[in-house]
Structures are given as structure tokens and as C-alpha cells.
Amino acid sequence: MNKNHIFLLLLLVIFTASCVPNKELKYLQDNKNSNDTLIMSEIVKKPYRIQSNDVLVINIKTIDAELTEMFRVSEGNRNIVNEQILFFEGFNVDDHGNIRIPILGEVKVLGNTTEEVRINIEKRLLEEYFNAEASLFVTVKLAGIRYTINGEVRSPGTNIIYNDRATIMDAISNSGDITMTGDRKNVVIVRQYPHGVEMHTINLLDKKALESPYYYIQPNDFILINPLKQKSWGTGTTGIQSLSTIISALSLVTSIIILSSRL
Q: b/e string for 163-180 if b means 16 or more Cβ within 10 A?
């Protein structure tokens, strides 16, 4: 094998290795290469347990408008829902796991589900302020799922999904998708628990991610998309970009050799 062949082979290796292969970009692949329809086992719906720094939206309604008014936080326009209004009118869970409700005072909510909080509030209201004829109606919801995503995404930052449940795919789509240089195989999720913070990883290239306990995000999750090695090499993510980089490098080397020979 002569020098030209060796040079062309080396060029081909660099060109191939520097590109991001298609298999690193396709979500939820079938590793068994099967065309069969994916049959998923039923995902066990574990209700979310309220944690510190969560924000709850609580509505209390009865046929007695004047008495109901006492339990409202403010006179703001409740038909408008945005992050600022939720911050001021929502019920923030403090470090001790309590919320403060007008008239009722502090209510312990840490570790409870929203349904358990609703039942507790209804029970206290019926015992202390209302009777059965008041037609008491209470709703308790999370003020959306707030998460932060950073790294190789098109729109990093903190977002809120106004839904009871959301997947990591929803969060990524809401952030403009992962860039071509993002590592979809090792997506990091930093999650808060009552006992502290834990880090988890999920492989979004494998369809088994649908069965992962981390496929559904939780409030205050931090999602990190690390870069692929191709980005650190700086050779480009596509074949055209890599070829352009290699040609530019060869042109620079050639120019240096020509200039050196003239000296």
C-alpha cells in the first residue's frame, strides 16, 4: 500500500468518525430490529407526592359567596394563568412541608398526594366552617410541572408544563429538541427527593425508555443533555461539515509547506 492509499484511508477514517451517525439521532429505537408493534406493559401510575418548593393551586367554592371569599388569596384576575400569578396566588410549600391557607392557617402537605390534601381541607372546612348544605367543592392541583433543561438543546432554561403529567419527551420538545451534537443515550435527570437529590440517566435511543421510572418528569427536575464527542473534536456533525473542515486543514498544511519551501 503506497502513501497515497494510506493517506486516503486515513482521510476516510477521520471523515467517518467525525460525523454523527443516524443511529445516534433516532429516538426510541427497537434494538431487536423487529418490525412487530411495541407491546408495552401497563405503566403503574404512582401518584406524585408533594415536596418542598412545590406550588399548589387550591380553589374553594360554596353557595355562600361571602364566606367563600375569605379563603381567596387575592383579588387578582384568576382567569389569567401564568407563572407570575401562580407565584403570588399559589400556595407555596415551605421547607417544613406546610402551606398557609387564609382562615385555616398552616396545613401539612409534605409527602401527601393532591387528592389527600383535598380530602384533608374538605374535612377541616366541614368541621369548622361549613355544613353539608353549603355544597362545599374543593380542588387541589399542582401549579404545572416546573423543570429546568440545559446543555445540548435549542432553547435551554426553565419551563412549566401546565398538565398533571408530562414525559421527558414533552420537556425536550418544549425546549426545541436536542441538537445534533447532544447525547441522547445518556440523558441525565437530577431529581429531588425528601431524603436529598439523586442523579439518574435514561437512554432515549432505546424504546425501553418508555418503561423507565424516569420517563415521566416531576416538578423541579433538572435535565442535562451532555455533548457527543464529535462536538469536542470540532470536526463537524454532518459529512459536508466534516469534509469542509478536513479540506480547510489540508489547505492550511499545504500552504505552510509551500511557504516553508520558498524560504
A: eeebebbbbbebbeebbb
Under the banding of pLDDT at 50, 70 and 90, the label for residue 224 is very high
Confidence at residue 38, expressed as pLDDT on a 0 to 100 scale: 47
Instruction: From residue 179, give the alpha-carbon distance in Å to each of 34, 156, 186, 215, 238.
Output: 27, 11, 14, 20, 12
By C-alpha distance, which of 157, 176, 163, 179 is closest to 223? 157
Alpha-carbon distance of 219 to 143, in angstroms, equals 9
All CATH 3.30.1950.10 domain ranges in the chain, comma separated:
55-142
- State which amino acid sits at residue 148: T
Q: What does the DSSP 8-state code read for residue 46?
A: P
pTM assigned to the model: 0.70
Supply the mean pLDDT for the chain: 78
Q: Say whether pLDDT at 162 is over 90.
A: no
CATH code 3.10.560.10 for 22-40+144-230? yes
Residue 183 has pLDDT above 50, yes or no: yes
User: For domain 55-142, is the CATH number 3.30.1950.10?
Assistant: yes
